[in-house]
Amino acid sequence: MIQIKGLLRQFAHLSAMRINAIRMSLAAAICLAASAAAEPIAPARQAELAHFVRHDCGSCHGMTLNGGLGPALTPQALARKPAVYLTNVILDGRHGTAMPGWRPLLSEAEAAWIAKRLLEGMPDAH
After folding, report:
1. What is the pLDDT of residues 49-84, one digit of tens each?
2. Half-sphere exposure of 107 (CA within 13 A, CB side)
């Protein structure tokens, strides 16, 4: 709550019209992010992503995703994590940990697909 009050104080000098412009920009950014996450992923790419998770992510999170160097990535372990949070971690990593960001290799839609599958239970990759 203190952070929110401080943030509000920083914007107190702005006019109502300027605040509305900021709100509209934020709304547009949210819509763009939602549309990127809604992009369909082709079945062949889905198979590649499942393989990526099982093997690349599995090298730290365990081949069955039950944990290893990194934490478990099972639906039970991730139950309280929002998909948007997981998508951001996949794309940008976690500062101060061994978790790298995968943004150079994955689109936002692909990261969102992975996050959703992790929350539901990642399919086996062959």
Report:
1. 999 999 999 999 999 999 999 999 999 999 999 999
2. 14
